[in-house]
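Before relying on records like the one below, remember that each one covers exactly one chain. Contacts with other chains, cofactors or solvent are not represented anywhere in the record.
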Amino acid sequence: MKIQKKFCILICCCALCAMRYVVPCFAQGNDKLVLLSKQIIEAKTDEELYGYFEELSNIYFEGNKYTEFIDFLKSLAEKKKKIEPFINYYVGLTRYRQLKYLEEKQIWDEYFSQGNTYRDEIAAAMQKVVDTAQVSEPLRLYARLILWQFHKDQQDVFVDQALTDLMDSAFEYAKTAHDTKPIKIVADRLSSYGEKGKSKELYRIYADKTISSEIKDDELKEIAFGFYKEGNLDLAETFYDVYVERIMKTDYRSLTPPKIIPLLIDIAKQFSYKDRQPNDPLYAEKIFEKIEGLAGEKGFDQDLIYLRALNLEKAKEYIKAKDLYLKLIDSKAPYLDKITYKIGIIYTYILGDIKQGKDYFGKLAQKQSPIGRASLYQLGLLAQWQNDPDKAKEYYNKLTENAGEPAASPETINLANERLREIEDGEPLEYSLRTFLDAALKERNLSLQEKGISLNCHPYEAKKNEEVNIASTSYTSSSGCLQVEIQYLWSGQLGKTKPSADTPSFSTSYSEAGTKEINLVVVSPSGITGANFDLLDID
């Protein structure tokens, strides 16, 4: 009997020791890890397991203890068969995170000696999850997501199929799922990888499943605004679309157009262009159009017309912006001079209508202000390009007289002096500037300009001496193995920086207020591949 009792005690001690070895060396002495391992073994539901595994992985990942976590997972698998899909998923996720860590830290010895082994483990582990988990389980969707990211990162031949499988899994999951969070997680990840079309599909599904008849309009609006504050514009717009549809369908006896319009105006203002806040000018215009459809011109006061026009300008919808600016031309608004100048710029360089452009510059030419001097410069420049040097000199000289002593608008004065020197010396316009003027005014290949290059500034509304970043993206045709030699011909009002011809982007600043015009022509050995311009405002 005594022997039997001692034997039972020994068996119990061995069992306790076995339980202790569920937690590997890294975890021993860490009370949180010991507790989590116990909670995982005793968990009754998948919901509990998701929380425990997420907490556990965060601890290991923060310490970059990837191999230790794999050992821990394998020891757990021996203790509870039911958690095998979780084990497989986190084994694959751990190896994926480990590869990313090795790349980031440039630990190339391990990366090249073990990389293929880790990749095989990722593919095998995630495929096991896909094969064993139910369509309705989030874990299966998450496994598809990691598989797609894995192939996307490698840019291998499986990436397209992996994306198709991921989207199919998301659609299948959405049919029966009550928990919509995994759909949003997949949509967020797709969006971060640039798959905007696919992410919008899933955001819409997420929104449709989230929005129920029990959610009131005000609650829906708050959800949309919450996503806007997060900077998730795709999801914010999806929820706002549903909100707008609802308020548009509301019985007009209880919600008349005068009450709807302020709600729409708030949304349009929220998404209109702002330098330092989330914005989507095209979505803002979509809401402005709804306002116009409901209330016509009565829905817009002068300030709202100006906001809409400025928003269209920043969306590079210059002709539409010009049409709205023209509605303000007879107003007493403080921004009248600015919009008059911009109308002149758009007529001249977008529409190629030099006569109309000169008319608007002429309205400002007598003003003792930076914008008056900028208008004189434009008039002189156009006269010089049209081979009328005497008229050009007249405008340039009037500009310098306008500036007074000490000279105001030194940047504009410097440009005028450069042009005067060209005229006095019998030289043509500076090459980059002349190339732009020819492209915009003579060749009239604006469809090429719009397709050939994009040009963006940040911020568009800057203070004096504040740094402004100017960046271009050109779309040139492939030339096989040869490196295409590209020239970037910058001209216009470039501020303190004079970028070289091999510079696609640069930073600058301005010492004087006014609207600044940035010109760019991109040239390859085959000729002009693109030309464009941008406008920014200095206060």
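The two ends are 97 Å apart (CA to CA).
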